């Protein structure tokens, strides 16, 4: 056993001051066993192609055998087919046991999950950033781009992987490691299935897996519900909640150091709240920093004490889709069940989360018994998800954006108006949050509201193109404070790639392609950008 592992184990023993919560792992992982050292092949290079695809062979045990990567990774343009990709891989079973920092030869310290289909990951370092080998929330926007790129077979393979996870564990874990099993991710699997079926008309695949979709929603009902009283009536909504102690294994040292800033008796709760924040996908944000005297400190995180507007909108949308699915399959009993569930959630969201005066939905603070009225694009997720009863809400949402001065930002919609140093706060802007607002506003029948939706799309495409012309890469997030740059903050370096950014760019080009402009003259670009500029120009024509 290496000295690093000895140190981790000693730290774990020293930090486990109480047993108020279950441990972070329910079974042994490779952190407790030997694991073969291996290097990322120096000859393997991932280009800036739109999609980076892998054949992962992830195991549910320690990575004991030697790992060979050289031909198991390939890049694919949108027009490459699934069949063509399978021919260029070295075997139908590559390996992806998360090698750690590039070319360091560092031991892989985690257990892995088998996957039997080709998948597309979000960016170049998705396997190395924190051991995550899938991202369900990322994958939704990736799938939208793949479907526009005529790669439906790849989307089906990704869906099958997620469905297999639900069949095995009852939910989709937060990532491809055993210690992620206690956390899920924002529930977008039903929406993914809807987009795939709408594109392919593959009703047989839906019929085969409808029960698995229902099982995933059951996970949220059984494990993540909370009762909220408003106006003398009790409502049931959902929250992110991970009642397991110990530091996050993927960020062990950071969590251990952070715990030193709080009383010993509060450390297990802090670690559980950090895991809930990771489950939300907003890791981390001022949305969750509501529990301490200094709201800018990560130690004030209280994710599970908030009822998120976006989470409940995702579930409301999923319940409507499940009702539609069952109606299509001729099961009226289940269709009625999910129709009623959606109606109940819609009533709860209007009573607890909606603010008529502001014209938006807001996260509800369970401890303070009131809404958090700070601006976040997630406040408009119910509009994007179609979870509302008043058709005028899109125009009310526009007024909310105007009152919050969000439309004054020319390079994208900020993630918040608070600069805490966390990545899900100002000045960062993220592709999926742009989509929530743009497609939400586009639901309006008002020409003015639709024009604002287009202008927001134009702003985002210009930012993408400007940064690409400078860096020859797309990024997971962008700093919109001063002309548009790759984003920053948080726990890791900004990632190139990047799946959901690429996916949204294609969605906006598909929707507004006859109106969008790059905002840059070709003559002003360096030689390395001319090909990209010409390609974008062709797409925009």
Automatic annotation (TrEMBL):
* EC number of the protein: 3.2.1.28
Q: What InterPro entries has UniProt attached to this entry?
A: 6-hairpin_glycosidase_sf, 6hp_glycosidase-like_sf, Glyco_hydro_37, Glyco_hydro_37_CS
Q: Which keywords label this protein?
A: Glycosidase, Hydrolase, Signal
One Pfam family linked to the record? Trehalase
GO-annotated biological processes: trehalose metabolic process
Q: Does the keyword Signal apply?
A: yes
**Gene Ontology MF terms:** alpha,alpha-trehalase activity
Reactions performed catalytically: alpha,alpha-trehalose + H2O = alpha-D-glucose + beta-D-glucose
- Per the UniProt record, which residue ranges are transmembrane? none
How far does the signal peptide extend, from start to end residue? Answer: 1-20
Organism domain of life: Eukaryota
PANTHER family referenced in this protein's UniProt entry, alphabetically: TREHALASE (PTHR23403)
Tell me which family the UniProt entry assigns to this protein. Belongs to the glycosyl hydrolase 37 family.
Name assigned to this protein:
Trehalase
Q: Which organism is it from?
A: Mus musculus
Source taxonomy lineage? Eukaryota, Metazoa, Chordata, Craniata, Vertebrata
Please name the gene that encodes this protein: Treh
């Amino acid at each position: 056993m290496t000295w690093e592992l000895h140190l981790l184990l000693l730290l774990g023993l020293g930090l486990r001051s109480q047993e108020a919560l279950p441990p972070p792992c329910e079974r042994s992982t490779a952190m407790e066993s030997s694991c073969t050292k291996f290097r990322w092949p120096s000859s393997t290079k991932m280009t800036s192609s739109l999609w980076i695809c892998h054949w992962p062979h992830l195991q549910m045990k320690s990575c004991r055998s030697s790992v060979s990567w050289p031909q198991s990774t390939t890049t694919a343009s949108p027009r490459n087919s699934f069949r063509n990709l399978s021919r260029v891989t070295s075997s139908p079973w590559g390996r992806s046991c998360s090698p750690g920092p590039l070319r360091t030869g560092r031991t892989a310290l985690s257990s892995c999950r088998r996957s039997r289909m080709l998948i597309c990951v979000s960016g170049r370092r998705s396997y190395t950033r924190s051991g995550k080998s899938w991202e369900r929330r990322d994958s939704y926007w990736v799938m939208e781009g793949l479907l526009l790129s005529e790669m439906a077979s790849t989307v089906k393979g990704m869906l099958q992987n997620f469905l297999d996870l639900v069949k095995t564990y009852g939910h989709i874990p937060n990532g491809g490691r055993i210690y992620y099993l206690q956390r899920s991710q924002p529930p977008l699997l039903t929406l993914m299935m809807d987009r795939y079926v709408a594109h392919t008309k593959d009703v047989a695949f839906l019929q085969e897996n409808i029960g698995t979709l229902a099982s995933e929603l059951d996970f949220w009902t059984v494990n993540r519900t909370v009762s909220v009283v408003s106006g003398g009536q009790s409502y049931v909504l959902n929250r992110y909640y991970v009642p397991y102690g110990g530091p996050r294994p993927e960020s062990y040292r950071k969590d251990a150091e952070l715990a030193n800033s709080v009383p010993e008796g509060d450390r297990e709760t802090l670690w559980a709240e950090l895991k809930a924040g990771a489950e939300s996908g907003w890791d981390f944000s001022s949305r969750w920093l509501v529990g301490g005297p200094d709201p800018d400190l990560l130690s004030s995180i209280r994710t599970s004490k908030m009822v998120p507007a976006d989470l409940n909108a995702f579930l409301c949308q999923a319940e409507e889709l499940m009702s539609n699915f069952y109606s299509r399959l001729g099961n009226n009993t289940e269709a009625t069940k999910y129709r009623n569930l959606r109606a109940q959630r819609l009533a709860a969201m209007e009573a607890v989360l909606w603010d008529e005066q502001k014209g938006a939905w807001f996260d509800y603070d369970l401890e303070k018994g009131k809404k958090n009225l700070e601006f976040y694009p997630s406040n408009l997720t119910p509009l994007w998800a179609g979870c509302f009863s008043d058709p005028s809400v899109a125009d009310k949402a526009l007024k909310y954006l105007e009152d919050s001065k969000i439309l004054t930002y020319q390079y994208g919609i900020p993630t918040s108006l608070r600069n805490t140093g966390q990545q899900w706060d100002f000045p960062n802007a993220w592709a999926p949050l742009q989509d929530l607002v743009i497609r939400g506003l586009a639901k309006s029948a008002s020409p003015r509201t639709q024009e604002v939706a287009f202008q927001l799309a134009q702003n985002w495409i210009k930012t993408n193109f400007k940064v690409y012309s400078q860096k020859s890469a797309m990024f997971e997030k962008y700093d919109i404070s001063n002309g548009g740059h790759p984003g920053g903050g948080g726990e890791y370096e900004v990632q190139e790639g990047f799946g959901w950014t690429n996916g949204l760019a294609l969605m906006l080009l598909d929707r507004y392609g006859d109106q969008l402009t790059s905002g840059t003259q070709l003559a002003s670009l360096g030689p390395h950008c001319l090909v990209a500029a010409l390609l974008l120009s062709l797409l925009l024509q």
